[in-house]
Amino acid sequence: MIERKNEFAQGAIAAVLSAAALVGSLYINEALEFRDTFIPGTVINGVDASGLTVSEMEEVLGDYGLILKFRDGKDLAVSNDEIDYHYVSDGKLDALMQQQNPYLWGAGLFRKNSHEINEKKEYSKEKLLAILNAAPQMNESNMIAPEDAHLGYVDGTFTVIPEVEGTTLDPELVRSTVISAVDKEIGSVDLGNTEGIYSYPEIRKDDEDLGEEAEQLNELAGGRVVYKLPGGATKVLDGPILKDWLEVDDEGDYYRDDDVWDECLEEYVKELAEEVDTVYKEHAFTTHDGDEIMVPGKGYYGYRIDKTKEEEQLWEELDENEQVEREPVYRRTEAAEPDDNHGFGSSYVEVDLSKQHLWIYQDGEVILETDVVSGLNDKEHKTPAGAFFAYDKKTDTVLRGDKQDDGEWGYETPVDYWIRLTDTGIGLHDANWRYSFGGNIWKWNGSHGCVNIPPKVMPTIYELVYENMPVVVHYGDTQ
Q1: Other C-beta atoms within 10 Å of 178: how many?
Q2: Most CB contacts within 10 A, which of 65, 125, 174, 319?
Q3: What is the DSSP string of 57-118?
Q4: Does residue 253 lie within any of the structural domains?
Q5: Pair 249, 257: CB distance under 8 Å
Q6: 15 and 64, same domain (yes or no)
Q7: Burial per residue of 413-447, b for 16 or more beta-carbon CB atoms within 10 angstroms, e otherwise
Q8: Is residue 63 part of a domain?
C-alpha cells in the first residue's frame, strides 16, 4: 500500500516537472521571437510597438496623412506617399531594441513599458505645394467672391437676400498654414474656420438697417400692376421702379413726396401710351388683292389709352399697395388682336381709292362690293388714306362745307345716309346726283373728300356698317 502511494507521488512530481519543462520551453521559444521585435507592453511615443520590428516601427512613426477641409465642402486628402513623408532613423529605435530583455516579455503582458524619443520627419515641400497649387479651390478663376446681404424684390415683395459666403481665399496663407500643419503632424485642417483664410461678406441678413429698409419699401412701394398689352405682351410696374419714385431723407429713410410721386406716375402713363397707342400711326394691312401695304397714320383707328383715367386708377392701386393684372384704361381699342389680320379682324370695310372700289367683309367673306367716287385728285379735296372707325351714322342729313367769308356755307348737300369716318367731315354717303361710279371719275369730277356711294347700294351699306367697324382707306400700290 505504501509502495503504491510512493509511485503515485513520484508520478505526480514527474508530471509537474514535465509540464514545467514544457511551459519553460514555450516561454523561451516565445522569447526568441522577440529578439528582433519589441516585447509586449512596449509603448514608444504613445504608439504600441508590441511585436513590431524597428523598420516596421519606423513605418508607423512615418505614417501620416492630412485632410484639408475647404469652404465648398470638398476635402483634399494628402497621403505620406504623395509628399514623401517618412521617419528619419537616428538609431534610437535600434538602441531601445538592444536595451530590452526578450526573456522579460511576459512582464509586458501585465504592465506597460513606455519610452519617449525625439522623432525626425522629412517630406517634400515641393510636392506638397504642387498638390496645393493644383487644387481647384486655389485657382482664382474658380473662386466665388463673397456677397453682402442686400435687398431684393421677390414675388412682388422687397425682401432681404442673404449674404453669400463665397470661396475666395488667400492662397499664400493656405500654403503657410498647411506647411505648418504638416510640420506639427496635424491630421486635419478646417480652412473654412481658420482665421484669415477666406474673405467674408461685410453685411449679413440680420442687419437691422436692411430689415428696416425692406419694411419701408413694402409700405411705400408695395404695389404691383401687370399690364396685359395687345398681342399677349405684358408690362410690369412694380417695386424696383416705384422705389425710384421715392425720396430719401437725411437719416436714410424713404418717404413719398406727393408732387414727385404724381409727376413720376404721369410720366410713366405717358410712356405706356407711347408704347401702346396705335392711333395716328401706320397700320399694316392685307388688301383685297392680297398685297401687304402700310396704311398712313391719318385715321383715328387703333389703341389709345385714356391717360387721365389710367392715372386715376393707377394712383388708387398704388396707394393701396394692390397687386393686380389688367389692361390699361383705353379710350379706343382695335377690333382684334395684332395677329388677327393686323388688328382689323374679319369684319371691316375696305376702300381702294386707286381702284375706286369698296368691299365689306363679314367674318372673313366679302358680302358686298361696289364702285365708288372719292375726293377730287387735288391737294384740297383728295380723300385721305388711313385706318378709321365708322363712329357716327345718320339718315336724312345735310352735308355742309366750310363757311365762306360772307357767312354762307361752301356747299349744302342733302343725303339719305351718312357714315362719318373723320372729325373733319370725311365719310361715306349716297350721291344721287351721280349717274356713274368707279373708273377715273374722281380725277376730274371727284367729291369734296367723301366717298360717294351709288344710291341703290348705300341703304344696304348703312345697315351692314355698324358703329366702330374698321374702315381701311388706301391707294393700293400707289400708296
Answers
A1: 22
A2: 174
A3: HHHHHT--EEEEE-TTS-EEEEETTTTT-EE---SHHHHHHHHS-GGGGGGGGTS-EEE---
A4: no
A5: no
A6: no
A7: bebebbbbbbeeebbbbbbeebeebeeebbeeebb
A8: yes
Per-residue pLDDT at 393 exceeds 70:
yes
- Contact present, 21 and 29 (Cβ < 8 Å): no
**Whole-angstrom Cα distance, residue 321 to residue 318?**
5
All three cell numbers of 188: 486635419
**Contacts with 86 (C-beta within 8 Å, 6 or more apart), sequence order:** 58, 62, 80, 121, 122, 123
The 10s digit of each residue's pLDDT in 122-171 is 999 999 999 999 999 999 999 999 999 999 999 889 999 999 999 999 99
Contact 203/186 with Cβ under 8 angstroms? Answer: no
380 & 438 share domain: yes
Question: Could you tell me which residues come within 8 angstroms of residue 442 by beta carbon, excluding any fewer than 6 positions away?
Answer: 353, 356, 373, 374, 375, 376, 377
Give me the pLDDT at residue 400, please. Answer: 76
Mean pLDDT of 88-100: 84
% pLDDT > 90, the chain: 72
**What is the domain extent for residue 11?**
1-33
Asked whether 62 and 80 are in contact (CB, 8 A), the reply is: yes
Q: 167-219 pLDDT, tens per residue?
A: 999 999 999 999 999 999 999 999 999 999 999 999 999 999 999 999 999 99
Residues 395 and 456 in one domain: yes
Looking at the domain assignment, is residue 101 inside a domain?
A: yes
Cell of 227: 399690364
371 and 396 co-located in one domain: yes
CATH number where 358 lies: 2.40.440.10
Whether 26 and 171 map to the same domain: the answer is no
Q: Any idea which residue has 492662397 for its cell?
A: 171
Whether residues 65 and 19 share a domain: the answer is no
Q: Given a cut of 90, is residue 91 above it in pLDDT?
A: no
Contact yes or no for 222/246 (Cβ under 8 A): no
96 and 195, same domain (yes or no):
yes
Hey, how many other C-beta atoms are within 10 angstroms of the C-beta on 465?
20
Q: Residue 21 pLDDT more than 60?
A: no
More confident residue, 90 or 305: 305
Cβ neighbours of residue 250 under 8 Å, at least 6 residues apart? none
Residue type at 208 in one-letter notation: E
How many domains, in total, are found in the chain? 3
Q: Report yes or no on 442 lying in a domain.
A: yes
Q: What is the DSSP string of 451-466?
A: EEE-TTTHHHHHHH--
Residues 290, 296, 297: CA angle, nearest 5 degrees: 130
Last residue of a domain, one of 147, 175, 200: 200
Residues 1 and 39 in one domain: no
Q: How far apart are CA 141 and CA 139, in angstroms?
A: 5
pLDDT, one tens digit per residue, over 313-322 is: 999 999 999 9
List pLDDT tens digits, range 217-231. 999 999 999 999 999
